[in-house]
Each structure stands twice: as C-alpha cells, then as structure tokens.
Amino acid sequence: MKRRKLVQVICTLLYNCNLIGFANGKIYQGDIKGVCVPGLNCYSCPGAVGSCPLGSLQTALLSSKYKFPYYILGMLLLFGVVLGRVVCGFLCPFGLIQELLYKIPTKKFKKNKWTKKLSILKYIILLVFVIGIPLFFAVPGFCKYICPAGTLEGGVFLVAMNKRLQALIGGLFSWKMAVLAVVIISAVFMFRSFCRFLCPLGAFYGLFHKVSIAGMKVDEEKCNGCNACVSRCKLDVKHVGDRECIQCGECMDSCNRCALHFNLRK
Question: How many helices (H) and strands (E) does the chain have?
C-alpha cells in the first residue's frame, strides 16, 4: 500500500522536523516537547519535537510515589482506544525503518510456530522493563537497557556530534549498540522483528485490539474462511485484527472476495 508508506514517511518527518538539531547535535526543548507522539520515537533524537510515550510513561512511573501519571496514562489509553495497533502500521518511524531494511534482497525467514511463541516476549518486556523496573528500582529499564530506537535516533546522532559524550562512552553504550545491531540484522531477514518480539508499545496497543475504533474489519457475509489473509500475512496473526495485527491492510490484496476493509468500528 503506497498510501501507507506515504503516511509513515510523513509521520517520521513530522516527529523529527527539528532539522537544525541534527546539525548542531542538540535536543529540542521547546514547549511542544512535552506532547507525546503515538509511535516509538526517542525524546533524545536531535530532530524530535515531541516525547516518546514509552519514555514518558517510565519517567512518570519513577515519580509515581509523589504524583499519579494521569497525563501519560490518559494519552496512551486515548491512542489505544482510538487507534490501537494502527499506530504500529502507519504512525511509527521505527516500524518504517524495519520495513525498509526488510527490502534488502536476501533469503527471508518465514513465520512459524517458534515466531508465534516469541511474540509473547514483548508483553514480558512491557511488564518487567517498562512497568516493573521503573516502579521498584527507579530506573527507566526499557529506555536504558533495550530500546534500539533510542540508540539509533538519539544515541548515535548525539554521540557523533558531541565530543564530550564520546569521552563518556562505556559498557552500557556498547551493550545498547549490540542490541541495535541485532535488531537491524534481524530486520533484514525477518519482517519487523523488533515489533513482533520486543516492542512493548506494540504490546500495549495490542491489548486494545477488540475495542479500538480504527482497524481492519472482516465482512462475515462475504468471507468464506479460506484463510488466505492470515497465511500470506508476514506477521504472527491468528486472524485479521487480533493483537498481533498491525492493521496495515496489506491482507486486502489477498482476499478475492473483498471481505476485508479498513474501517471505523462502531
């Protein structure tokens, strides 16, 4: 779907329109930086003009003993109820990066029973690194130890442009670069590997798959149960619109009965 790619590119540019930040290696700190964007986009990216919802949630949980994080939880619930995993399919810059990497011509690993089992890992990461570690150890676990989007968008650019940061590089940065390298390499061979196995933001939005307003809809009267949509999907979906579905709409091309539609649910 060319229109979906166009939306992905536009969102990536809008999230990171502070182009001067890439030139001077400085983080934008204007008034709108406190507004959360729906997709995974690092706060520390020099071009970022908004905040990452996961980073904001972890920061809010660090101070939750003193102040309940109404704003960030409200924003996440709003994104989840209105859009669900439409965010993953259309509005996430790191999803676009992975899809571009997958276009590199190599032999691809197809989905199987093991990839379906590994998809549970992102829900564990959501509970442990995004919620548990910030609450009990006062450390933004996911951002600090895992997030490859933050390493690529924030760490690499900032370190490249700041000699002071280069002098501070240590074991943690090396670990994050190793995680980034694994994610990049895996994305070449497996479609959106980070989204499928590691992304806690996708896991959170996936919890709203039954109630989100926007998303794919199956016309039961036209559907004959051939399952072509599921078998041709590159993701580990069991049926169209489930928690693993990123609502990209590419399954519509596989349905010869026109039973699939992108719709606003009642």
Answer: 17, 2
